[in-house]
Structure formats: C-alpha cells, structure tokens
User: Fold these one by one.
Assistant:
Number 1:
Amino acid sequence: MATEAPEEKLAKKITDAMSLSAVAQQVAQLAGDINCSVAELDKVISKDPAMSSKLIKMANSSLFGFFKKSRNVSDAVTRLGLKQTRNLAYSFCVGNLVSGEKSAEGHEHEYSQFNVWCHSVAAGALNDLLAKHSGARELRKHSDAAFLTGLLHDIGVILADQYKHKDYYSVPGMMTYLNQSLPKVESRFLGFTHEDLGARVLEKWKFPKEVVDAVQGHHSPGQHLDNPLTPLTGITEYVLASNEFPGFHDVPADIPARGLEDIKFKLEIIGEPFNEAIEEFWKTAPELMDIYLQ
C-alpha cells in the first residue's frame, strides 16, 4: 500500500477544517453558467455585505481603471464580467480564511502571516498588470485569472504555518541562512513545499486548473511554459524578491534568476511594457492593500 504524501495528508486536514463560504461557492457555480444574469449574481453576492463592499471597491480601483465608478454590486459585476467576479469572490473568501491572528494550534503569528499576505496582495497586483501589458495572445487569454493566481501563489506558506507551526516556524529563517529558495529548504526539512501544499488545497476547493497548476509550478516557471500563468507568476515572484517591495519574500534577493529574461521575452513583457507595469504597480498596490489587509 502506497504511503500518502505529506502534503496530501496535510491538505486533507486543512480542507476538513476549512471550506469556502457558501456565497463564494454559489458565485462560482453561477459564473460558470453562460446563461447566468447579472441580477442572479447580484442577489447571491448581496447576501455577504463584506464581499459586496470589497467587490465594489475592487471594481473602482485603478487596477481595473473604469472611468465611471460602480455604485452597487450590479454595476461591479457588469464591468468586471462573470469570470473576474468569480475570481474576486474566491480571493475574498480565501483572504478571510488565511488572515486570522492565530494558527490552528493557537500560536500567535500575526506578523509573519501579515507579511506573507502583504506579499501575496502585491503579487496579485503585479501579476495582473504584467498580464495586461503583455503582448502574448495566449497570456492575455488568461489575464482574468492573473490576479487570483498571484494572490494565492504562496497560500501554502500561510497554511503550513497555521497547521504545522512547530515544524514550520523556523523554515523561512533557514532560507536566509542557507541562501536557498524557500521550496528547497522546505523539501529538505519538511518533505514537501508550499507549492505542493497550496496546489493540493486549491485543487480540493475546486479552483480553476490553470490557477492550481500555476501555484504548483511558480518556482520553476521555465518548466511550465504551456500554462502562461505559471511563468507569469514566476516573473512576479522574482521581481518582488527585493527589499524595495512589500512583504515576505520566499526567494533570497541575491539568488540569480536564471532564464528570467528569456521568459519575459517569451511572454512579451520586456522593455517598456515591463517598466510601465512596475510604474503602475506602485500606484495600484496601496489601494489593494487597503482592501485585502483590513
């Protein structure tokens, strides 16, 4: 009988204890129906005042750049579209699940989780902006999932800390000491990585496959060029691995990003488009921090 992989065992424990809200599940179901109306989504989302408020704020943020402001959920859904509305509902729900002040074992670790979540919000913003500035048709086809993928790429870090705090709390510090990426340190000391854990949990929560695959492979983007969200998130991860960007970094800033320029070239995010995305990031990130870090 095959031994169950450690990340699979932990993912089962997590998903047995945590589940997406009923509203998020209903939104996902409706958004997957091409016959769904704005009125139907409005009715479901309005059941959750916090989600409604955040959705309207996101629709009015500079990330989406609508000239006319959304006044209500119906306006926001109309402008964002079904898929983006679904993805944002997912993101708000997961944000509520992972942003608690204590782990499942009762340990205080708000500071570390805050930093990881701050980095995640930054990654969501940069992923979205890089996708919008890309000239690659295949990436632009998946651009509505870019923000969600960036936001969730390190969910495995937060969940590992919540559910295996005694084993995990010293691992990020070892990354700096050994000057290795976080997945290499996790593999050495835990037998699994935050990519493995995050992907398994999102898979059990029935997130879109392209998002799950990108979370699984974002530290080896050159090996997963078939899913443009994976190399996109890999670029974002390495760009944010600098002290000038906010939050926790799971790649030491001085580790060389081999092949990164080749990936940027393949995704047509090089030169002026890349610089414009970074410039817009600094204008957009504070708004999103206000929404997701409340």
Number 2:
Amino acid sequence: MTFVAKPRTRHPLLPLNELDLTRRDYEGAVSTLCAGCGHDSVSAAIVQACAELSLPPHRFAKLSGIGCSSKTPSYFLDKSHGFNSVHGRMPSVATGANLANRALYCIGVSGDGDSASIGLGQFAHIVRRRINMLYIVDNNGTYGLTKGQFSATNDRGSTSKRGVPNLYEPIDLASMALQIGASFVGRSFSGDKRQLVPLIKAGLMHPGMAFLDVISPCVAFNNHNGSTKSFQYVREHSAKLMEADYIAPSAEITADYEAGAAEDVNMPDGSTLRLRKVEASYDVHDRIGALAHVQRCQEQGEVLTGLLYVDPDAADCHDVLGTVETPLNALAEADLCPGSRELDRLNESFR
C-alpha cells in the first residue's frame, strides 16, 4: 500500500491570517477521491473560507455520515474535532455536539444519498430544530461508492451510466430546507470558488441553521451510457479474478459568471448543466419568493445558485430551549445539581 503524505516544509512567504496561521494550517490529509472530483473543490473552499475568516481550527466540530462526500472532513481542518457517523445519522451526532458545546463552530458534510435517502428524516428534523451549524450537501445525483446508482436528487429523465432513464421526481433539499425553517439557504457549484467561498463564510458566521446545496459532479460514474467498454459491461461479461478499477484523471470543472446571468457547464457524461446566479436585486429575506424562484428555475431546466434566503432575526435551538450561555460540557457539578430542596419543589410542581 502506498501512503502519500503532505510535505512538512512550508514556503516562508505564505501569507498569514490574524492568528498567524497559513492556509496550510487549515488543510487535512491527502484526498483519496477520484482526480477531478468536485468534492475536493468543496473541501478546498472550506479551507480557504476558514483561513480567511481567521477561525481557530481547534474550535471546529466537523461531522459526516457515509459516502464519498462524508470522507471529505478528513481533507480539511485536521486539528479540529471530528466524528464520522453511520449512514444518514450525522444530524443526530451534530445535535448532541452542539447542545454539549455551543462554543464550537459546527460543519456537517453530507451527500445526496446520505441526506436525501436514508437520512431524509434526520435532515428534516435537524433543520426544523434550528441547530446552529453549517450543513453542506455535496450533491452529485449518484451513489459513487456503490458504482453509480441514481440518488434521490437525480433529475427525472436523466440517464445512468448504462443509459437507463430515471423515472422518479427529484427531492430538492434546498426547497425542503426553505419550507421547514432553515434561516440560511444557499446553492452553489463546486467549480465556482468565487461564489462558493463567500457562501461558506456567511454560513459559518450565521447564528442558526445554515444549509448549502453544492452541485458537485462525479467524474467517475456520471459518464457511462451503456457502452460495451464500460466498467459495468466488462465485469458482467468476463471471469473476474479481482475487483480493480482505474479512474483516469479528469480536469476540474469550473465556472465564473456574473450575478443574474446564466452559464452552461458541460458535464463529464456529455450533458449540460445550466446554472443561473440570483440577480443583484434579489430579495434574500423573502422565504416564499425564494421557494417560488427556485421552482420557476427548475421548470426552465436551470439550477438557481447564490444565497437563496437568510432570516435576519434567526434563532437557534439554544434560544428556543433557553439554555445558559456557558457550554453544557463546561458546567460544574454545582451548576448541574440544584440541591434536594429545589428538586423537591420541581417534583411537587408535577403532582
């Protein structure tokens, strides 16, 4: 097995932020994802956002579930707290971490399978509970770890790597987040760093549930259309000695376009993704308008990107529950145990 480590030496002229840290101090391990994977671009955007905000890495809790996207917390903020949970259950762990220590910046990274299928119920409830966190979904419309099946966010009529059309309507997580109470909702494209980094910064600084749906293309399993030279066809018609894949390196897909404009982006499978940025005059405080605008763009075959909605008077779960300002994990026994007299009074109130 070959192990690739990042060099310990660093260029002496790397710029320092307000904490005297460089961008390298916010990085993690070397990525094992396919070359050109959009998820790596999202990780790089998180690194850049945290470095530019001068946030201390040890003040972060990064959490994930299962899937290609859920591997990515290993690739940023290696000096932070981290927890890789089971499939679809990241929101439960994030809820506990935030309730125990509200002083941490919480980033949850999930995928369209992790959040829109097995974890759909968990996603819905962490949004409506207004946990103070940045929830990022790396959305590629496919199950990359299990060889490219449709995910629940895949558009109806799109085809798999075998050319089979998707027969079902997609689940739009951004629309769901808007409907059930997220106070910050955005959508972006992994290759558009100029838009994505500011959205991540704003989400990290937002006092409440911030949700980002990031379209992040899969370069390995969204480009097969039933060719007899495909990995799947060869495996079905040959005597296999072992499972061995070779994924050819692919160039990162990027986009750079102005507010209010549309941009056609060519996908690895030959299809075209049409992105549209919200206009400069767009009202980000209109929840109903945001939901309607997203739906109108979907009807026109466009993916609306940018900050879709933000509540200027947002509250999080600690405001709802009335918890103390001190993180619960930092309270002493005297704070947690009110004494027998107070317990007797409390018990009597329930009689």
Number 3:
Amino acid sequence: MAHELDNDDSPAERKAYRHCAPDRFRVRLDLAYDGTDYAGWQRQTSQTTVQGTIEAAVRQLFGEALSVVGSSRTDAGVHALMQVAHFDAAQDPRRFRDLRYSLQCLTPDTLVIKQAYLAPHDFHAIACATQKTYRYSILNRRVPSAHRHRTTWWIRQPLDVDQLNAASRILVGTHDFKSFQTAGTPTETTIRRLDEAHWVRDENDTLIFTIRGEGFLKQMVRNIVGCLVDLQLNTRPPEDIAHILAAQDRRAAGNTAAPQGLFLVQVDYPPELDKRCLKL
C-alpha cells in the first residue's frame, strides 16, 4: 500500500470491534513518534512503518506474532505526540518488571513508548475513541528554517490568521466532508462532526491550526489545510469554503498540505474506561 489511510473511524471498523478473548491480555500503549522516516502507521511489506516497528518489538518480547491496532492511521511523514494502540497477548504483561522500558529498548529513538497499561477486555483503540485532536504547523516567513523543516510546512507568502479563522469557523459542526476526502478508502458515510477548527500565530512566525472532532476521513486534515491556504493565496473570500463543502467533490478543495506539518496530539476515551487501564 503506497499511501497511509486517515479514515480512522469508519462505521465498518467500529462494527468489526472485538473484545479481547477471555484467555488473553489486552495491552494499551501510548506512543509518540517523529514520522519523517516512516511510511505511515500501517504495516507494509517493503517499507518501515510505525505499526510494523512496534509489532516487531512486541513479537520479540512476547514470543508471538501479534497485531497492534492504532487509534489513527497517520500518513507517511505525519507525526504523533499521542497515539494510542493496543494488542492482545497470551502472556500476562505484568510478568515484565517494566514493560514500557522493555519495549522502548527494542524501538528506535524516533518512536517513544510513553506508557503501557493492562487494559480491560472491552477497551479498543479505535472503537472506543470519542474525539481526536490534530495540530498543523506552517512556518510563515520569507526565510525557511534548517531545523524545523521536518515539523512545519514552509510558506513564504504572508497568511492572515483572521481570514484563516473566518473560513475555519464555517467547517465547525456536522457536515458532509466528501470534498476533503482523498479517494481510495471505502466508507459508509463521509459525514463527520468537527468541534474545533482554530488558528493562532506564535512568536516564532508559526501558524498553528488545531482541529478536533469525533473522527476524520482519509487525509481530511491535510486537505482542509491545503484548501484554506489556497483560498488565501488565490485571494478568494473565506465564505467560499461553504461552496466547497456543498460541492462534495475533492477537485473543488484544491491542494493537499504537506505531511510534515501534521501532528496527532490527543486521543480521548470515556473517563471511566481510562480509569480501568492500569499502568504497568
């Protein structure tokens, strides 16, 4: 598979949700990674991926081939400050003195195991997630940065935060986001709910876009960012975003933003379920 998928909450996947078998142990991992050197989350036969790297470490530690399920299938080059994953093992993970550290010793420095938990049998990284938050960063100045090119999209032309926010506010709420879905991922519906879509400019000439919702279509966040930038660079009014939504046509939304500016920053679960995840 040449491209990673962002369609991380499709109804089909939620229907496929399975409890952990009673004779196995469900382990939850909280992860962070620099996605630059990975061909996305999902395992591929000929490229290094986040899922494949974790599964290799888990296989070495637990002595069996296990499938690791991630809450969001981030694209090639996309980063995570907080990714959540789970797997089911025959061995009790409490037999390890420090499972988090043991796994970390088997993964590269670009992939950090932030925490490991013994999760309840009904925890599922995808199906139980209630919201996901992404952040996109644009370095907006005349000169690029030699040290931030892995984590920002450089745009030389000045961008106006107020104009970006005026367009972004139209996207908040429940809409059909078909115009912002990259083709190639079957899904029963392209309707999604966004609870936040907001831009700020920090003191380092960086525009930071925070977007939060119940789930996202394939490359939806990058397509939204690319569209918002295109509107400004082509001096189109923010209100045009409503026409692009209504078109339900990917061609209406313009370019896809570069992957390196995107971070998965938070995955939320019901508080009562979080409390039942026991730190290892």
Number 4:
Amino acid sequence: MTPHPHRIIARLALAAVALGTSALVPVVLSTAARAASNPGFVLYSAQGYDHAAVSAFNATHPGFTVTLNDNSTGPLLQQIQAEGNNPKWGALWVDGATAFAALDTQGMLEKHIAPSDGFNALGKANIPADGSYVPTGVTVVGALCYNSAAVKPSQLPSTWAQLSEAKYNGQLGMNDPSQSGPTYPMIAGVMSQLGHYTSGSTAKAVAAGKAYFTALAKNGLLVSATNGPTIGAMEQGSINMAIVQSSACYGAEINGSFPSIRVKYLNYSIALPGCFGIDAKAPKVVRQDAAKFLAWLLTPKGQHVMQTGDPQGDSLYWPVLNGIQPANKVIPPLSSTHAVTINPYVWGPLESGINTWFDKNILSAAA
C-alpha cells in the first residue's frame, strides 16, 4: 500500500498588500497554523487492524482526520529517526515496548497520556511510570509454532536450551528483527533470561544471547523478514518449527490456510504489548487529536474494531481493559504461555546495536 508520510499539507494563503493594491503575495503558514487549517494527524502503525480502526474512527468523528502510514515496525522506526527534528508522525502504534522506551529516552514521546482508570492488571503492568506510551493489547512472542503433520508433540523441545540442540538442525525459523517489530523483544527476552539479567549484568546477558543465537545459526536457522514468510516456509516444508508471535500462529490455524499448525510454549515466552505513543514535538492540536483517537481505542467500541479488524492475526490478543475478553476461544489463558516481561528501558536503547549485530552475524550466516 502507499504510505501517507505528510501529517500536514502546507497551503499557500494569499494576502493583499497594503494601500489597496490588487497585488497578491504568497504567505507560507507556520506549523501551528497548518495544523489548525488541516486538523488531524498521521498515524504510523504496524497493527493488522489499523486500517479498520482508522476507518471506523474517521467515520464517526468528523472533527479531524487520522491519516494512516502502515508499514512494518522496522521501516517505521527508521523513518521516525530519519525525520529527526522535522517529524511528520503524530502517533506511533506498534508491538513492543522497547521501541517506545528508546523514543522516550530521546525525549520524543508525550508524557502522561495514559487514562487514569479502566485498565486490568495486565494493562497496568505495561504502563511506564511516566505514562509515555499506553498498551492497547498484549500478545506474546517466542511461541513455538510447529507443523503437526511433520513433527509429533513428543519430538518437540520443552525449553529454549533444548531448542538449540543438534537434533533440531535445519528445522527452525524466525523473523529478522530489523523488519519484524516483535522479534527484537523476543531476542532481548532470551538474552535477559539466559544471562539472568536480574541478578547479573546487561553485558553478561547480551553475550549469553549472542552465543545462543549463533548456535541456532550454526544449526541451520532460517531467517525470514516477517511472520508471513516464516510461517509460509513452515507450510512449504522448508522448516518444521518457528519461534514467532502467538497471534500469527493462531491466525494461520483459524483461517484454515495451514490446518496442521499448532502452538507449544517452552519454559518461557516474552510478553509483547501493542503500544501507542504520541509525538512530543507535534503541535498541540495534533497531540490533542492523537489523544482523542487513543481514548477511543480504549473504549468498548474501539476494542470491538480492534478485535474484528484482523480476526486471523493481530486481533488475537489478550485485552488490557476491564470487561473485555479475548476475541477467540483459540487464545489460551495467558498463564499457559509462561510469559516474562523485560525492562524496556534497559533493552530499548540497545535495539539498534543488537539488530545490527544480528543481521551481520545471524542473518548473513542463515542466508
């Protein structure tokens, strides 16, 4: 699809010069004036239900327009960094708190945007102290999807350590963290767990994780860009297992395109909140409009659109609001996933460096 990178379209205003002459000169409007003349904002999003949400909101809220720039998370984050001090985004809506923590540490996110009530325990656990981003739903990453027609449950590993054993050579796939937003939080979660970050050090955790993914690469790890190609490789028989996002696995099972796909959770998975943040450098009217859209997402009507907008994909999340239930019975209790939460403010600033290392050492080795 064609992205819409411009939040505000500059307009030329004509003003008559003094003394009653008929000459007209162009006047370039200021940023604030452009925002007032063309109310709304550009939403950078990688959510499967973002088209449905934006369309539903625009149809019922005529006061301003939300314009969607839909892309994978990696390219969106690269676009935000490239825009620098001339941002064109009004809000960001993607999976993974690490990206938002990194933006927050750079002073790029509006603070205290989270509503004061309405969140269940899962939602409250995923709101940072400064309220610089807000969870709208939670999936997990690191779910072990497998082809039940090719491998029996008894043949599967039960732990991440077992997953790296030689007997699984050539059977495993995953996504590229530079393209797939959920993948870096998974890598960071594995590093954190293997390095016992809570009782050790970040450097120790990173080193342990690099050694682990290097072992997977030596075992013939297949790395694809995003969920679709990775699951497609499993369906085609190139691999039998993949460590990806839970909603992608459940979606392939529900839509019937891959009836033999199943999900197993190892000794841990990584909680993956879908988050919403607002550009702190945007004009006030843009920030206000983005806050109104966020408030609508957190209503029953907004949640209904999210849960029906991508019913075979991102809609398969665990709700973060009181009174909202999962959209499909295929979604198990969150406790069954053994989900752990990483500190996004520790791992967010490391994302660029770790992704660069992964693409240089793991992606190239798996190619």
